[in-house]
User: Fold these one by one.
Assistant:
Number 1:
Amino acid sequence: MKLLFEETKLGNMKLKNRFVRSATWENMATEEGLLTDPLIKIYEDLAKSDVGLIITGYANVLQEEKPNPGMMGIYSDKFVNEYQKLTNLVHEYGSKIIMQIAYGGTKTTYQTEERIIYAPSEIPERSTHTVGKAMTKEEIVIVENAFADAAKRIQEAGFDGVEIHGAHTYLINQFLSPYYNKRTDEYGGSLDNRMRFLNEIYGKIRKQVGQDFTIVIKLTSSEFFDGGLTFDDTRQICKKMEQIGVDAIEFFGLSRPLLAEPDLIKRWKEGVRKKAICLSCSKCRTNDGNYCTIFKKG
Ligand SMILES: Cc1cc2nc3c(=O)[nH]c(=O)nc-3n(C[C@H](O)[C@H](O)[C@H](O)COP(=O)(O)O)c2cc1C
Ligand code: SF4
């Protein structure tokens, strides 16, 4: 526990401790993806309570690509001023904040009739059964550039870094997965080919933000089903990510425990070391926002 409270460095970020709030979609942004008072309060509470690094809920890089309601947006320059409020606030308390960016894809049932949803191949997603459009090379470039433009805005808004969402069956994860990626071009087949989309996104982001900006990637360790991404594949992906200069790969972080107790880290720091009260029951997603319905009312 002592080590967890020690300062550390992650990329170029100096963190006051090693506790990371992993990305948590709050379902509290406006329809456009702008901040609201309840959303700002969540980040203020986390920063106030000594969380060393806060990763925002996933933000969409293309306006039309919104896998869930109430997500933060980062698809246009109008968000730069908006998020300066948030980054200044978090920095006032000595915490660091990075923004997670994602292209959701077929792991959604949200407004699926009203938009084109991209996928590596036309394979129904296992839980939503949504089928996407197999992307052309031009569409791949559009999405890659959207990630890179979003990262530039994130840097301009004063965030300490950016996290690429490569997990949870979202689009990047689907490109990596032999189950979802059945392409026969240079983006499918071998692991090197399946990694190409992620590599290109990383390369374009790095070009936009420079060497000193922290880039983190969140990966699924294994898909845990026949024909899916295995732990061995992920080990290879991690090695490659390290070689190309990714600053960190997310293994674990704290999401639900901090919904149940936003002041958990402060409590532990002050010596009240009983374990987190969160029951891991996942009853924290509601239509009125994602909050702990057991211990903390929204
Ligand atoms: C309400 C809710 C929203 C989440 N939103 C995101 C998200 O936006 N991006 C992401 O990568 N993971 C998201 N997650 C997953 C968490 O970051 C985390 O990986 C997962 O909940 C396991 O950690 P935990 O046991 O500490 O909750 C979310 C989880 C919950 C409960
Ligand atoms: S609803 Fe359940 S899983 Fe979610 S934060 Fe509360 S106790 Fe934890």
Note: The first strand starts at residue 8 and ends at 10.
Number 2:
Amino acid sequence: MRTILITGASSGIGAALARHYAAAGTRLVLVARHGPRLEAVAQDCRAKGAEVEVARGDTRDRAAIRALLRDADARSPLDLVVVNAAINGGGKEGRVETQETAFETADINYTGSLNVMLPALDLMLHRGRGQIALMSSLAAYAPLADAPTYSGAKAALVAHGLALRQKVHPLGVKVSVVTPGYVKTPMGGELKGWRPLEMSADRAAALIARGLAKDRDVVSFPLPLALLARCVLLLPEWVRRLSLSAFKFNQR
Ligand SMILES: NC(=O)c1ccc[n+]([C@@H]2O[C@H](COP(=O)([O-])OP(=O)(O)OC[C@H]3O[C@@H](n4cnc5c(N)ncnc54)[C@H](OP(=O)(O)O)[C@@H]3O)[C@@H](O)[C@H]2O)c1
């Protein structure tokens, strides 16, 4: 039995990953705040033969999430944990992001991710086996003026994940960071702007699963956008400002 825990499994990429991995011989632990959407994904996964546990939780609640991971792991050791839950944050109608939104975004997208990753890491280090995927974004490389805290949190996940990877790989734990471009999901739908090479959540899930199966350090796609994004910080500021202005967006 392979056990996979996914946070943010009630929607978008997390839900698509759950459905992708759903099969006989797989146990899924699906985490998000809202029950009904999570239950709908769980039903699809059960129909594909997976054993599914639905776990309602807010990744900001450190103690509750630690307990949730520990209990799930005690029932069946976690082989893969996908740290995926996040929000968009950003300024409304082109304005500077408020403090309130910035702290909420940092709390969910970075601290909330650590609340999941660090207990999972301890459990996996203890038995010398396991895999963790951190869901970042191409915004980690190409910081978006309309979503500064989102970009910062995603950059932090890349740096944190890759630093940890070096340390824990020899101890049997694989850590990968995932940096998708535009994916058609409810989160993406909140933003009005140019979304070049946008792909479906199902396609993104297949690419992520393929990259994780190969234990890639960074799972980045689509390739043309990933290459451009990863060069952005090497550009002089005026060129960077010009090129990133094409990616301005507004919250719907
Ligand atoms: N869509 C894109 O274009 C894109 C591009 C690059 C990277 N990404 C990344 O991919 C991941 C998934 O994004 P998505 O587009 O699939 O978004 P989405 O459809 O909005 O899904 C986000 C998921 O996170 C959960 N969530 C949010 N806050 C939570 C919290 N505090 N505790 C627990 N669960 C929480 C939501 O469920 P509840 O509201 O029920 O809790 C939902 O299941 C994110 O990390 C995002 O940054 C997305």
Note: The chain has one domain: 2-251.
